[in-house]
Amino acid sequence: MLKILRYVLSPVVLIIAVYGLITKNFDFQSIMILLLGLLMLVMGLEEFRKEKKTLGWLLIAVFIFSLFVSIQGLLMN
């Protein structure tokens, strides 16, 4: 399940990033950061399953930080 979620989130984040770079329209940047944070959460949970707790905690910390940044970005617009 986590692998499928990772395979779905990765191209979505990539498409939004490429769209922003090509069109110079950064309206979806906060959503992209939120989805990227969710991708980090999924990767962190996968690392916990592999018994790599240090990397898992680091990825979850990145998720929390990106969640905070994306919420601030959405509220500022």
TrEMBL record:
UniProt KW keywords: Membrane, Transmembrane, Transmembrane helix
Membrane-spanning ranges: 5-22, 28-45, 57-75
Keyword Transmembrane helix among record annotations: yes
InterPro entries to which the protein is assigned, alphabetical: DUF3953
Superkingdom of the organism of origin: Bacteria
The protein's name in its UniProt record: DUF3953 domain-containing protein
